[in-house]
What does this fold into?
Amino acid sequence: MATIDQKPSKYMLNLLHVLPAYANEEKGIANGLVEINTNSINKYEFITESGQLKLDRVGYSSLTYPVAYGLIPQTWDQDNDMLDFIIANVTEPLVPGSLAEVRVIGVMKFEDGGERDDKIITVLADDKRMDHIGSYEDLGGHWQKETEHYFEHYKDLKKPGTCKVLGFFDIPEAHKIIKECTERYEKEYKPKLS
It folds into this structure.
């Protein structure tokens, strides 16, 4: 059972601002809030202020997400949004809006319309099928090519040429980015909470 360090409440908690970024930092396990399933063209996003999941848009092409996708709570990336994460090798569809504990295995640095919008690469922490995956490199070269192709071209029919993958990087770099984004959240976003 997932645990949240909060007293019981008659009001629904906004998990974006209640959950910490890590479920177990020592083991490299982050908290992830799932927005989108693998093979979807629908783009769901959490409303930062309220925590509800909203259909942001239907994709502009037939390209589908090759990974599950979501955000890490209490983080703030350089694009003025919570830090994104992707879950590789999901075998069963995940419920959008659900909390997943994910093991960090790398990061894909990404630029969208001139803004940094990095994607932390993860696998489900409690999926024994993923125990042998120690790094994003264990996913294979084709996984990297497919993921890079998707993120560089999924907006081509709306804003061609605006997305660029800047490379794939190791676990220490991923944790460095999470730390930077949690610090940015504390400084730039948390003071706005009521």
